[in-house]
Amino acid sequence: NNIVKDLYKQDNIANHWQVFDKRNIKFIEQKEKDSKSDKWFVSVATVRGNKGTDDMATLIPKDRIPEYGNRPKFYINFDSKKLADNFINYAKTDFCSCCIYLFKNDLNLGPVLRYVPWFDFSDKHFSKAPKEIDDYLFKKYNISNDIRKHIESILPDYYGIRDKTIPIQ
């Protein structure tokens, strides 16, 4: 948490998350506007994973893809499909999952999103595979190999991104 605190205080997923509330005209108008826009979106629900399941500390399901058109109840907009794809790559990283893991204690994902750092997804590093993004982020933020191994030992490899040839000790 001390390592990522400055990051999520600068910007976080909650700041980009759109929540549709049919009781509020402002939200209805925003969803209609977004649905008619030329933006792509990624559905990010408020409820995700349960204690003791492999997907407890995850942001999206394994098969999540960027979508275009009518928005669901909870989503994040992107100016292009590439940015949405890059966000999905990031969402599948151990870095992202660890941020969720630190604060999530039940099915509710929504309140935890403010602790997951937001990045510039036009950065070329986010167009790579999730494991490569992890390599980049762990190195960039000076997260030691010991801490990384610990993270990998407590988080299930839900997305299957880890190198299976290197045993975690």
Biggest sheet record: 4 strands, antiparallel
How do the strands of the widest beta sheet line up side by side? 1-4-2-3
Q: How much is the average pLDDT?
A: 91
As a percent range, the share of helical residues equals: 25-40%
Q: Could you state the oligomeric state of the chains shown?
A: single chain
User: Low-confidence parts lasting 5 or more residues at pLDDT below 50?
Assistant: none
Q: What is the overall shape?
A: globular
Q: How much strand?
A: 5-15%
Alpha-beta classification: alpha+beta
Order of helices and strands: HEHEEEHHHH
Please tally the helical runs, counting DSSP H or I stretches of 4 or more residues.
6
The tally of beta strands, per DSSP, is 4
Cα radius of gyration in angstroms: 16 Å
Distance between the termini: 23 Å
Topology (SSEs and partners):
Layout: H1 5-10, E1 17-19, H2 25-36, E2 40-43, E3 67-68, E4 74-78, H3 81-91, H4 94-103, H5 130-140, H6 145-154
Antiparallel strand pairs: 1-4, 2-3, 2-4
Describe it:
By secondary structure, the protein is an alpha+beta fold. Helices cover 36% and strands 8% of the residues. A four-stranded antiparallel sheet has the order 1-4-2-3.
Short key terms for the protein model shown above:
169 residues, alpha+beta, four-stranded antiparallel beta sheet, 6 helices, 4 strands, 8% strand
Give a nutshell description of this structure:
36% of the residues lie in helices and 8% in strands. By secondary structure, it is an alpha+beta fold. The longest helix has 12 residues, at 25-36.
